[in-house]
Design a protein that fits this description.
Layout (H helix, E strand, L loop, with lengths): L1 H25 L5 E2 H18 L22 H19 L5 H28 L4 H15 L3 H10 L1 H11 L4 E2 L1
Parallel strand pairs: 1-2
Helix pairs in contact: 2-4, 2-6, 2-7, 3-4, 3-5, 3-6
Length: 176
């Protein structure tokens, strides 16, 4: 009987710790104004996607890459995708239109802010599991299959996929 009570107590403790840990991961992006980022993207989406000559190729949406990431990998995947956009996409994209360039810069600045917010909680709450690692590798492989400019443009055009994923996985942590 004591063993059964101990097992139930242990199981309850595991569920409690997992739920606390998962809720903690969702708090990594506290006070981020996603509405501003989404609005900036909506204003340039048509112009960016009109330049994309590879309509049948995807970088982020291939076989539901992001949806395969488990809740414990959300922080890691967010961190990896923010780094992907900051280190590759925004740097590789060459934009001549000053209005579009301003919107992209605004989005990049918001992503930089999110990276800094993640760094504050990542040491204790950000676990990189196999799903997040595999998804990140697939995204980088997809990116590398295209010429750099085309890949950057494609990734910018798919930014709404990443923003929707952030909104879904960090709901309640961003302001609208």
């Amino acid at each position: 009987m004591k063993a059964q009570h101990a097992s139930l107590w242990f199981l309850g403790a595991v569920f409690f710790l997992c739920s606390v840990h998962t809720r903690g991961l969702r708090r990594c992006l506290i006070s981020m104004d996603m509405h501003h980022i989404e609005e900036s993207f909506r204003e340039i989406k048509g112009a960016i996607q009109a330049k994309d000559i590879f309509q049948n190729v995807t970088i982020l949406s291939t076989s539901e890459i992001l949806s395969s990431v488990k809740p414990l990998g959300v922080c890691c995947m967010t961190k990896n995708l923010l780094a992907f956009y900051m280190d590759r996409v925004f740097k590789d994209h060459q934009e001549l239109n000053p209005q579009i360039l301003r919107k992209i810069s605004s989005i990049a600045n918001s992503f930089l802010y999110m990276q800094k917010a993640l760094q504050q909680c990542e040491q204790r709450l950000c676990h990189c599991g196999q799903e997040a690692t595999n998804a990140t590798r697939i995204i980088h492989d997809n990116y590398n299959q295209l010429e750099v400019q085309s890949a950057a443009l494609k990734s910018l055009g798919e930014l709404d996929i990443f923003l929707a994923w952030i909104h879904k996985n960090h709901q309640g942590t961003s302001t609208a």
